[in-house]
Amino acid sequence: MKILAIESSCDETAAAVVEDGRHVLSNIVATQIEEHRLYGGVVPEIASRRHCEAIVGVTEEALARAGVSLSEIDAVAVTYAPGLIGALLVGVNFAKGLALSTGKPLIPVHHLRGHIAANYLAYPDLEPPFLCLVISGGHSHIVEVRSYTDFHVVGRTRDDAAGEAYDKAARAMGFPYPGGIEIDRAAQKGRPSYKLPRPSVEDHPYDMSFSGLKTAVLNLLNQTKQKGETLNREDLCTSFQLAVCDILSDRLMLVQEAVGSRCIVLAGGVSANSGIRARIQAECGERGLPLYMPPLCYCGDNAAMIASQAFYEYQAGNIAGLDLNAHASRAIDLG
After folding, report:
1. What does pTM read for this prediction?
2. Fewest C-beta atoms under 10 Å: which of 19, 245, 298, 309?
3. Could you tell me the strand order of the sheet in which 23-31 lies?
């Protein structure tokens, strides 16, 4: 089964053709990072306009690279939630037009389910059940993946997502957008010489909080400036990244012990972070737990991951009508 998927939840316009949920025939991504870098972050209105400009060309290229025509596609899939509402609407309406004009089924895909499915593209042997840490710019979840379409959120951030904390801390340190990768690079050159908090959520041991950590970095920067002192930025990056790794790994392993999962999976854009990957790999190695991490090419937003999840959504009968709408926020366990 060949599925053409469209992804436009944030600042990447993407289209891909994937066969039977695992075999990538094409995966095209048009990024807007350089333009948004001028503003220090994603500007929703600009993102929506660029999606409108790029989506036809990206889709045509995906079909051409896959060597198939639109008539040879068996279904059309699209990210419908969560994300920037204007950006999502571009992809949803374009996909509905394709489905209507071709008479193909329309498959709605939750963006975070897609991130988890990115691992299916790299690991043919990976099948649910497993425990997944989903970390991105807008989300930080610990998800029990019971089947391809059955998800249970065990822990989540109560405020900032890990990726959001990275970007805000990076901006305060003077790094360009996107700042997460800049902190990751600098962290490899410094020492953890600054004491930063590891916030927790009272009475909710599996949940995470990154707002206090981000605020601690901002306060440290302000206090150093007011005192006229010099701050070692590389050391601060190392200290910050270590704190994030502590929070994520501690919660993940606590949940693993509670639910008894014998397999750990990483997913989401922040799963590309070298420090986090190394930390989780070490924790799993100590416990003898198999660990699956998406290749870097599938960590960020892409349409191949959406097509992969769409295959399993289709098998479960999750087909949308032309009344499908976009949702800026929607829980992963609601589909």
Report:
1. 0.96
2. 19
3. 23-31, 12-19, 2-7, 75-81, 106-110
pLDDT score of 176: 93
Confidence of residue 335 (pLDDT cuts 50, 70, 90): confident
Q: How far is CA 241 from CA 9, 57, 282, in A?
A: 27, 38, 16
Instruction: Give the DSSP H or E segment for 23.
Output: strand 23-31
Which tens digits make up the pLDDT trace of 214-223?
999 999 999 9
* Residue 165: its H or E element: helix 162-173
Is cis: bond before 295, omega within 30 of 0? no
DSSP states along 245-297: HHHHHHHHHHHHHHHT-S-EEEESGGGG-HHHHHHHHHHHHHHT--EE---GG
Neighbours of 51 (CB within 10 A): 29
Closest CA to 154 of 110, 108, 204, 90: 204
What lies within 8 Å, CB to CB, of 219 at 6+ separation is: none
User: pLDDT-based confidence at 327, cuts 50/70/90?
Assistant: very high
Residue type at 71 in one-letter notation: S
pLDDT tens digits, residue range 61-80? 999 999 999 999 999 999 99
Residue labelled with tokens 């003898």: 288
The SS3 call for residue 149 is: coil
Distance CA 287, CA 252 (A): 13
Mean pLDDT of 28-50: 94
The HSE-up count of residue 196 (CA atoms within 13 Å, CB side) is 30
- Mean pLDDT over 172-195 rounds to 95
Nearest CA-CA partner of 210 in 253, 246, 174 = 246
